[in-house]
Amino acid sequence: xxxxxxxxxxxxxxxxxxxxxxxxxxxxxxxxxxxxxxxxxxxxxxxxxxxxxxxxxxxxxxxxxxxxxxxxxxxxxxxxxxxxxxxxxxxxxxxxxxxxxxxxxxxxxxxxxxxxxxxxxxxxxxxxxxxxxxxxxxxxxxxxxxxxxxxxxxxxxxxxxxxxxxxxxxxxxxxxxxxxxxxxxxxxxxxxxx
Length: 194
Description:
Elements: H1 2-18, H2 22-26, H3 30-73, H4 96-107, H5 112-115, E1 116-124, E2 140-150, E3 164-174, H6 187-193
Antiparallel strand pairs: 1-2, 2-3
């Protein structure tokens, strides 16, 4: 019996507290205000986390694209140049650097045009000197891409110059010992066999 009386007393005291004339008037709408404050902070934090994730995604995607471009560059192939094989320009000789740009674009999941800066793609030797085209046979090359990704969260923007994440990705490889023009038109077949 004592257990029932205690339980009854607890329920009665809770009902008395809820029927108090001061609580409904004083705390009316506090839940809405608290939700508005907390939800705003939560959304800001959530979008900051999404921004950080996008920074990592863009950086890794472009790193992979540059690596794939470098793998293509070292073969000496050039037929991926968008202007190569154009019937309006039958005398045009394929440009390896344009073919490498196309290969990078192909593997960038559509991010290449969104992140590229002016003069953002360079080919250098290990001593940081510009290389003509994509280098000579047997030469060590470093393909470097400088990009910029705009941030959407005002929480992170002050930590980055102009509210953009500027990054550099690069890949270093040694050109194969190819002969100029040796693979012209044959690279696709060689890649399919491999």
